[in-house]
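Weekly puzzle thread! Below is a chain. First person to post its structure in token form gets bragging rights.
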Amino acid sequence: MGFGNVTSTSNTIKTIDSEKKISVLIIEDDLLNQKIHKVIMTKFGTEVQLAANGKEVVDLFLSSASFDLILIDLEMPIMDGIKATKQLRSMGVTSMIVGVTSRNQDSKIQAFMKSGLNACYVKPLHAEKVSAMLNELKNN
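Winning reply:
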């Protein structure tokens, strides 16, 4: 599932881990994808919290939670990634929000991007994508 790539970026992992820990919220309804994304993000030295749908993330921010990076799935029960992202942006959330989706259709990805994402990746995430996200976050 791409875990082998994580060890090949050990220098990147050490660089990111030696600075302030980046807080990451992973919003994903599929338990296997939650675990994969959490393992990868943890290997990069981030602090990870999980949520299963968009309503949970909106509720977290309404209760004054904050995260440096939000990884949000497109398709979830209760509230999907598009609705949740639009609501977060309308609430003034300025965190980096990155969509993750199993859909590789330009129209779906474009609609997701228009909701207020900073970037969107097709699943599964792998070390190079995560490294690029974290480096962009550090540089902004």
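Puzzle host: Confirmed. Bonus trivia for everyone else. The radius of gyration is 14 Å.
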